[in-house]
Design brief:
By secondary structure, the protein is of the alpha+beta class. The chain has helices at 6-13, 21-27, 75-81, 83-86, 93-104, 146-155, 160-166, 244-261, 283-292, 306-320, 339-342, 345-356, 397-403, 437-492, and strands spanning 31-32, 42-46, 53-58, 63-66, 72-73, 135-139, 171-175, 180-181, 184-185, 187-193, 203-208, 211-214, 225-227, 237-241, 272-276, 297-300, 325-337, 360-363, 369-383, 386-391, 412-413, 420-425, 428-433. It folds into four domains: 6-104, Alpha-Beta Complex (DNA Primase, Chain A), CATH 3.90.580; 132-301, no CATH class; 325-438, no CATH class; 440-496. β4 and β5 (72-73) form a beta hairpin. This is DUF3991 domain-containing protein. It comes from Parabacteroides merdae. Pfam families: Toprim_2 (PF13155).
Length: 496
């Protein structure tokens, strides 16, 4: 029997009626970004502006474009590109098809209505609440999955001592619904999320090789991953991170720096609290922590990118009870194609290339076509009756404090040291800029390896020089002995 392609299999599951791109994108975690939507396209994101994935859905909802990877296509192509988000924590086609069957086996009511102007209308979808019983967790320890240890030590570059210290704050996790493949369990790293004052998890951050997401239904508006040995009322400092991996990487970076410099470690879990917001900080998370730890000092440990700087501002505003209005400033680009050019093959190709790049089109009565798009070029910020315009890279806490005389910074910030590390992309080694604390941990480990390699090479050169010197000295001794023997032989007449 001939093996079916992914497209043929999905079309068979859906009886030839594919669900809408908007619905599938929403299911796998994308959210509509109204600020960047246009009349002809819908912008959707995973993550905050300035980071994560960003796609455009256009052509009456039939096509998408990933603005980060450049990939484009229909709903099947998008599902394949984001398979790791779609297939419920299982890296295999069986669970991928099973989830398609569960969600889209009957699609009579799964299509998204469209307005006449090609705007998309969000449909009401059933909310799947988080159920702790679905997840089988085990402590992370010496008997844990070897591949998960390798993932944390050799891919995430977290040292053994840090893992030993932090292993009580995360688990190995298995999805009992989609957690097996060919009779083998599929196990990942699970970082439990808790609401302040509760002992039952309200979600999980889930990580593995090339794979990251939150468990379905996780409450990331109130729930947080945390690590401390202190009671909340005794906490002196709260360190906010975007992910639990970043927090553990920070501990590893701090430990290794202290060992190399002989200085005390910065982190002390007897008095400090590490928190992952599972993304950016939310009002519910920050307010509940402020009530539980009113005297604590706050340190923002977010990423180096624009989203990280925006998280700094959000955290400071919530903690200090200040309100700032931030609006996007867009610049419109236009390209006009005359009626004559629209009919040429060159014109059609150029228009299609622009559509694939996220441009929208407007057809005029005279037969011409206007292509246009809006690019984010800056921000308009309002505070206490004052208004300033800032560039894309100027939206930072220090810049706000300099722009508004009454604006107060009530938190501390710490960013990873900038630099580069080597990453394998498409079987090629490329240099990548450090963005977060895990990148910093990887870069530090690579630098230590490079330093060790240089030391080994230097020792090798020294040994080589020493061997060469010893060889010369030995040759000189041998020559002296030979001359002495020759003199004795000449004097005695006997061969030595």
């Amino acid at each position: 029997m001939e093996k079916k392609s992914v497209r043929e299999k999905i079309e068979e599951i859906c009886n030839g009626r594919l669900p809408s791109l908007y619905d599938v994108a929403t299911k796998i975690g994308f959210k509509k970004d109204p600020m960047e939507c246009s009349q002809r396209s819908v912008c959707m994101r995973i993550g905050a502006a300035g980071g994560g994935e960003k796609i455009l859905i256009y052509d009456n909802g039939q096509k998408y474009k990933n603005l980060r990877s450049g990939k484009c296509g229909d709903v099947v192509a998008m599902s394949i590109e984001f398979m790791d988000r779609f297939s419920n924590y299982s890296h295999n086609w069986t669970s991928f098809y099973k989830e398609w069957q569960d969600y889209y086996g009957s699609v009579q009511n799964m299509f998204v209505e469209r307005h006449a102007a090609s705007n998309f209308q969000e449909e009401t979808r059933a909310y799947i609440p988080f159920t702790p019983e679905r997840w089988e967790t085990k402590p992370f320890g010496p008997t844990s999955n070897v591949s998960l240890k390798s993932y944390l030590q050799y891919i995430r570059c977290i040292d053994r001592d840090t893992l030993a210290e932090m292993c009580g704050f995360f688990n190995t996790i298995k999805d009992t619904k989609y957690g097996t493949h060919n009779g083998k369990d599929i196990v990942n790293i699970g970082f439990p999320l808790y609401r302040v004052g509760e002992d039952t998890p309200c979600g999980f951050e889930i990580k593995n090789v090339g794979y990251k997401r939150t468990a379905p239904g996780s409450d990331v508006s109130m729930g947080m991953w945390s690590a401390t040995r202190a009671n909340l009322q005794d906490v002196k400092r709260i360190f906010f991170f975007e992910s639990a991996i970043d927090a553990i990487s920070y501990v590893s970076v701090d430990r290794m720096k202290a060992a190399e410099t002989g200085t005390p470690r910065k982190i002390n879990l007897d008095t400090d609290l590490l928190v992952s917001c599972a993304g950016g900080p939310k009002i519910g998370q920050v307010v509940s922590l402020k009530k539980a730890c009113p005297q604590a000092q706050v340190i923002a440990e977010f990423d180096l990118d624009r989203a990280g700087h925006k998280h700094d501002i959000i955290l400071n505003n919530i903690w200090s009870n200040q309100t700032i209005q931030i609006s996007n400033v867009n610049k419109r680009e236009e390209k006009l194609f005359t009626a004559e050019k629209v009919c040429t093959e060159e014109g059609k190709k150029e228009i299609q290339d622009l559509k694939d790049a996220g441009w929208s089109s407007y057809f005029r009565k005279d037969g011409s076509t206007l292509m246009y798009r809006s690019n984010l070029v800056g921000h308009e910020v309002k505070f206490n009756g004052q208004t300033v315009n800032l560039g894309l890279d100027e939206l930072t806490l220090p810049k706000l404090a300099n722009s508004f005389r009454d604006y107060r910074i009530m938190i501390d910030r710490e960013k990873p040291i900038r630099g580069n590390y080597i990453k394998v992309v498409n079987d090629q080694q490329v240099s990548v800029a450090v963005k977060d604390w895990n990148d910093r941990a990887i870069a530090d480990k690579q630098q230590r390896r490079a330093g060790l390699q240089r030391s080994v090479e230097k020792i090798g050169v020294i040994k080589q020089h020493q061997q060469e010197k010893e060889a010369v000295e030995q040759a000189q001794r041998d020559a002296q002995i030979a001359k002495a023997n020759e003199r004795i032989q000449n004097k005695s007449g006997r061969k030595i």
